[in-house]
TrEMBL record, chains A, B, C, D:
EC number(s) given by UniProt: 2.5.1.54
Name under which the protein is recorded: 3-deoxy-7-phosphoheptulonate synthase
Organism: Litoribacter ruber
A GO BP annotation: aromatic amino acid family biosynthetic process
Ranges in a coiled coil: none
A GO molecular function held by the record: aldehyde-lyase activity
InterPro entries per UniProt: Aldolase_TIM (IPR013785), Class-I_DAHP_synthase (IPR052899), DAHP1/KDSA (IPR006218), DAHP_syn_2 (IPR006268)
Length: 337, 337, 337, 337
């Protein structure tokens, strides 16, 4: 049960609502976000919401049978729109493009990539400065200094930044330099990290876990939302299966299912989803066609020299061509509605 | 190694080639198909194909490092085209449409479905008369009588038939009434069935196994081809994973990968691939966009009354709308090349 | 619902029972096995079995909520015992041992293996004469002649034979030479084969599908049982997962679960379950300890020269040692009850 | 390549070794643990270790082809033994027992559990005070206060504590009250947490990831070891597969494989591995039989009243009976060597 309270509710009104819910067998968690205050009720009893609805201070009440509540479309049918400023938005009915290298490597690489993005009309740049690596001996990224350098150029060019945050202590140091915090596939159920990102007033994109279910992805989003942050994006990036001909199995089924279950925007990552450069464009276009609100892909001036993920990274010519195709496919999709 | 021999090769010439290959450590299997005769050499030794190439009677020799040989694009770069007669073709650069009910149920249903297919321009009708069912107590299809009834109407309307064959003994009795034998996902590795389908001069569509790999699907096709039948179609229909929000996980990665590895046409089945009616169109369009040569989907006049698979079956209005969208998406895809 | 009828029931009594069940919304399938006659009722209505129980000719009625009926322990709590003659039994509370090569190769190999089995007290010999192979160019076994040769030696030595049947047409030709028909992991859902094995009065061991669920394995057994054959054995042999350090993932969880759900004996195959020779003994012992009624493993005089599966095959010394350990572990397990 | 240096190596000697390795194309990471100092070389060039071995200050050099180095048995054949003090050890050739509730709930529960452990001879108590939960609204554990309370009683009774640490900031506050930090299945690839646990001089038990490979588990252990902490334990707790009849699929294959690849002790968790109370004992015994160095299981005075995981938790009578059986099975296993 979600009780959205009025902005001007008094403490005593709120206490009365909580008390009544408790008496009906519901445990209440209070959630304050950038936009509103909610009382989330968890309980199993049958509940007469009309009676509770008579209490003062309530704007709206919904019964939500899903295990996740605030991210469910059963509560909020209107799609969530994320505004990154300067006219950059991620939202239903639009096609957000995010591209860039796997890892931020050098200043020259940053500059070249930004030039490419500007030329093709991509507004959001991806890149890793903290890299989760299976082996402790592999390159782990340039860290906060790399991010600051990147930010300087991106800011000047009007390009937004999406980059992975790996642990709680990085949230604050990264804050001034990121537009979207990315939660990586290995951290989708790092609940402390999700809790803390709930306390930040900045967009968060959560990648589906390496073998995470659709339900778990929504529950992870619920962590951030219930922590107080409504600016959430979901990302399908492929799951682990027995098939070894591709790096992961891009589960595009997840796109219409997530769009149906949740009001949050859904982005598709074809680079990790198939892991083979020459097939990334086809999978990006498939993602557009089945309903994605955005595409995130890896591009690099010289993919074969990239520090990481070169095998799934497009060069700039391929990237330019793909962006045009994505736009055409998106226009066609819009005509279908 | 694939040695394609000349049509007019003499027995003694052939013997000499085989002998020389044997001496080089290669075991030879002779394959005669509708189109040609091949000597397939399996062995591990390094092989100087130039020396063998000097033998008379040889048209072409290729080293194929894949475990499958005749279905590999390394041998035959030109895409295979399946001609079903009356101008109906399944081939690269075209978009074959196959639709119809899960099960053939009644004459009225057959007639209504054919009317719908004619009206929307779908040339191939799907439907099951032998149904593989997990439970021995479930409806198992109308059998050969259902097929004959169906054939009578389809023939008259110029509609081609694709339907599942479950065992060797059915091949002959079905022969006069089918245009494409379908091998179901539970029979992808029923090697005896594949062997026998190799002896038939009719198209065969092999569905990927319930948890079959891409490699295994190609090996299964190799069985039919090496049995003598080149008229082969591959079908991606979703795989079994841990995810339970969809019936199967439609692995669209398989489409560009299969197209890259093999010269055979690839069809996508979004109905089984996601298993949820309202999302079938999105997945069909995604399939088109990532390179499928055809789409097969379930449609029924009244899906909720269907004997089986109603939950993933489109009604005729949805089907009509989808076909139009598929055609538009296919036109767009063609413009991308 | 399972209605076990009396041996001397009259046709009119049976008709009356069926009629009444039909009226209550239940579809009846009549099943005649070696031991009894059953009327299997499938339906969703609530059913007052007491009222039906008043009909004459009925021995016993059980409501079985599982999708499988006759193989369920909810109907028949007493474990099934398979008697192969000459004192060889597969049953709860006993430890059946089956061993032998992957493939039957030569007469010498047969003789040597039988000597080894006799020396270690193993009463059932495994071996393939029809081999399902992913590639059409691989060795497919010696066929029926190999089986006859094998039978000749096994019969003389008092050794029972378990071997794979791949298709319906082989059932009859193999009949005189096998003691247990094995249904392989790729044929677990070959429903025609299961149907036909239901008509045979000989034991059938069904291997779990390559990625088959426990439920599906029981449904496959239900096919054979409902065809008329109660002499059934279930076999856990590992499932397909993402893990590549082993050939399959031996799912020993399946052992106590199958024993709990069904009255059929359960055999574990550690050779395919892990696929690595040096670890087969540990997995065999684990299988004994979690409740298996039998162990089937691969052994060969010279595993490295075996035509197939050498990497997971024990030599005779390893086999001798393992059998002793299995017996000790089984004695310990019995002491736990 | 692992270069173990002498305790009294001089800085200039070390520099010379690093320089020479660099010149041969190897990047060196220096690792200092509680026991020794290692130089880990990562590179692809062929390397003549004899030449490097002539340098002064080197105790031992090993080429390790695995991606993990320090946890590999190729480097260190001697099994690692973890000494928790007071005679409590986890090591090859021994059987460590860890038991307790899923969550620490109340003082009474702590006291009762400790009494039970003392009575049955279990020396290590498990229990969660920080609980990773899919839903943000679920019980998340008593936190540090619960741990302190628990420690007080455990210390007095001579019982050791193993409990999950979820984030870096908890490491220090938990330090005085834990004997083994547990890394949960959702944090197996939380690399920052692993890095920090490498800096602690206390045992760490790493659970295999929800769908983690055996290779990834070893890589995660390598993180901790290369951070400086050799006191490592690996835990198999079941993996995610398509099978839904059990909570997870306990992958006992992992036990002999991990024991073969690594010198670290391996513990099996049958409670999470199957997730069904009545089958936990069988799976525990199977784990013992295939080579585990320890068993961790959930027990509670009244499982049906437990805050979490009650369905897989043994009551004290079941626990007592199981411990006796584990000991018998372990004695039998020892007799096999």
């Amino acid at each position: 049960m979600i009780i959205q309270v009025k902005p001007d509710i008094s403490d005593s009104q709120k206490d009365r609502i909580i008390q009544e819910a408790n008496q009906s067998g519901y445990k209440i968690t209070e959630v304050k976000t950038q936009l509103s205050t909610y009382l989330i009720g968890i309980g199993k009893a049958n509940f007469d919401i009309r009676k509770l609805g008579l209490q003062e201070g309530i704007q709206d009440i919904h019964i939500v049978s899903d295990d996740y509540k605030l991210v469910s479309k059963k509560w909020k049918a209107k799609p969530t729109s994320i505004d990154l400023g300067d006219g950059v938005r991620i939202k239903d009915g639009d096609m957000a493009l995010m591209a860039g290298p796997c890892s931020i490597e050098t200043e020259e690489q940053i500059v070249k990539t930004i030039e490419h993005l500007k030329a093709t009309g991509i507004q959001i740049m991806r890149g890793g400065v903290y890299k989760p690596r299976s082996s402790p001996y592999a390159f782990r990224g340039l860290g906060i200094d790399g991010l600051k350098l990147w930010y300087q150029h991106a800011k000047a060019a009007g390009i937004k930044i999406v980059t992975e945050v790996m642990q709680v202590s990085q949230i604050e140091e990264m804050y001034d330099y990121v537009d979207i915090y990315q939660v990586g596939a290995r951290n989708t159920q790092n609940f402390n990290l999700l809790d803390e990102l709930g306390r930040v007033d900045k967009a968060v994109m959560i990648k589906r876990g390496i073998s995470g279910t659709i339900e778990e992805l929504l529950q992870s989003a619920e962590y951030v939302f219930s922590g107080g942050n409504e600016k959430l994006i979901l990302c399908e990036r492929g799951i682990r299966t027995y098939e070894k001909a591709s790096r992961n199995t891009l589960d595009l089924n997840a796109v219409p299912i997530l769009k149906h279950k949740s009001h949050l925007p859904v982005v598709v990552d074809p680079s990790h989803g198939i892991g083979i450069r020459q097939f990334v464009p086809q999978m990006a276009l498939a993602g557009v066609m089945c309903g994605a609100d955005g595409i995130i892909f890896e591009t690099h001036e010289t993919p074969d020299l990239a520090y990481s993920d070169g095998q799934q990274t497009l060069d700039f010519d391929q990237s330019t061509k793909l962006v045009k195709q994505i736009k055409d496919a998106f226009e066609l999709r819009k005509s279908f509605i």
